[in-house]
């Protein structure tokens, strides 16, 4: 498959076969840690929203491939504070690089950047919409941990209304025909339009408010934080922020579960759970490097 010059904006743009091909390439880079085959390439990371894992894993990936990185992770250090438009920022940056990785708080911003830019663009998260490189990381983690993605019985818990990682990954799993359980308060349920899109794949969907009621029917518990930055009403955030707590009582009751989390966590998983055999969220984060090495190499035709 040829991905040269291709933008990576939404998991919707990829077939099941393309997803499996990307995971195969990620496995190659997992076994082959370093290379200099991108030593003449430059990647620009434009992060208009805070990031630790995503930005650092992209930059680590490019460094291990021998390439260079141009970066800003603070809007206040860029010409945007002078009033420069997103369009003009992209047109400037494309002249300095071979690839743009962008994170932006507005839904649809990444696709707009791709339309403006003359170089490939990878979406590193656009508001509550999509986060495709995290989705490929999550799928690769499922493949490594379970041996086969088709064995996945997943329950998403937490902020499903605003959680772009949940939105992306659920759409990807639907392409494999896998059942999905959504666990959340009523006010943070998956958006109805996404539920309807998932139903078009003829998969089994369960919506529940209690982890305990469905824990025996799943093998993956994908935990998300309640995202303060997405709430317009802070009182509503304060009411909901501690609604789910993953602790040793839960893991001892359901020892078969593997616990995933896109991170950062802000209290929804107790630190004591880190020692639980099924706590795989740090391995999940580290899997972002081979996955992003695959994506970078492929869109740059290498």
SSE inventory with pairings:
Layout: H1 16-31, E1 42-47, H2 53-64, E2 68-72, H3 86-93, E3 99-104, H4 109-116, E4 121-126, H5 132-146, E5 154-157, H6 164-174, E6 180-183, H7 192-199, E7 205-208, H8 211-214, E8 220-223, H9 234-240, H10 248-253, E9 258-260, H11 281-286, H12 288-299
Parallel strand pairs: 1-2, 1-3, 3-4, 5-6, 5-8, 6-7, 8-9
Structure description:
- The protein is α/β, with parallel strands linked by helices and 302 residues long.
- It folds into two domains: 11-131 and 287-299, Aspartate/ornithine carbamoyltransferase (Rossmann fold); 132-285, Aspartate/ornithine carbamoyltransferase (Rossmann fold), CATH 3.40.50.1370.
- Helix content is 37%, strand content 14%.
- The protein is built from twelve helices and nine strands.
- The strands form two sheets. Strands 7-6-5-8-9 form a five-stranded parallel sheet. The chain has a four-stranded parallel sheet with strand order 2-1-3-4, with helices on both faces.
- Helix 1 crosses helix 12 (288-299), helix 5 (132-146) packs across helix 6 and helix 5 (132-146) crosses helix 12 (288-299).
- The protein is globular, with a radius of gyration of 19 Å.
- The two termini are 12 Å apart.
- The model has no long low-confidence stretch (mean pLDDT 91).
Q: How many distinct folded domains?
A: 2
Calculate Rg over CA atoms. Answer: 19 Å
Q: What is the succession of H and E elements?
A: HEHEHEHEHEHEHEHEHHEHH
| Count of individual helical segments | 12
Helix content: 25-40%
CATH topology of the largest domain: Rossmann fold
Q: Beta-strand percentage?
A: 5-15%
**Shape annotation:** globular
Largest sheet: 5 strands, parallel
| Overall pLDDT metric | 91
**Spans with pLDDT under 50 lasting ≥5 residues?**
none
Terminal CA distance reads 12 Å
- The CATH architecture of the largest domain would be 3-Layer(aba) Sandwich
CATH superfamily of the largest domain: Aspartate/ornithine carbamoyltransferase
For the biggest β-sheet, the strand order reads: 7-6-5-8-9
CATH class of the largest domain: Alpha Beta
């Amino acid at each position: 498959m040829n991905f040269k010059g291709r933008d990576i904006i939404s998991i919707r743009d990829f077939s099941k076969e393309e997803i499996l091909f990307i995971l195969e390439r990620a496995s190659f880079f997992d076994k082959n840690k370093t290379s200099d085959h991108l030593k003449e390439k430059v990647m620009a990371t434009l992060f208009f929203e805070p990031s630790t894992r995503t930005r650092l894993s992209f930059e680590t990936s490019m460094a291990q491939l021998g390439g260079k990185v141009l970066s800003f992770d603070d809007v206040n250090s860029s010409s945007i504070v002078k009033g420069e438009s997103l369009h003009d920022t992209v047109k400037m940056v494309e002249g300095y690089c071979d690839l743009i990785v962008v994170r932006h708080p507005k839904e649809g911003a990444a696709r707009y950047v791709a339309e403006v830019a003359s170089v490939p663009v990878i979406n590193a998260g656009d508001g509550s919409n999509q986060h495709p490189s995290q989705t490929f990381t999550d799928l690769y983690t499922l493949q490594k941990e379970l041996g086969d993605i088709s064995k996945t019985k997943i329950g998403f818990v937490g902020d499903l209304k605003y959680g772009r990682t949940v939105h992306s990954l659920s759409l990807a799993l639907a392409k494999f025909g896998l059942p999905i359980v959504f666990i959340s308060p009523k006010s943070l349920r998956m958006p109805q339009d996404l539920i309807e899109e998932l139903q078009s794949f003829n998969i089994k969907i369960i919506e529940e408010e209690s982890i305990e009621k469905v824990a025996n029917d799943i093998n993956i518990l994908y935990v998300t934080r309640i995202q303060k930055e997405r709430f317009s009403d802070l009182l509503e955030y304060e009411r909901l922020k501690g609604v789910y707590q993953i602790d040793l009582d839960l893991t001892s009751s359901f020892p078969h579960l593997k616990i995933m989390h896109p991170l950062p966590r802000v209290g929804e998983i107790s630190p004591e759970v880190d020692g639980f055999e099924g706590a795989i969220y740090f391995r999940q984060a580290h899997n972002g490097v081979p996955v992003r090495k695959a994506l970078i190499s492929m869109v740059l035709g290498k």
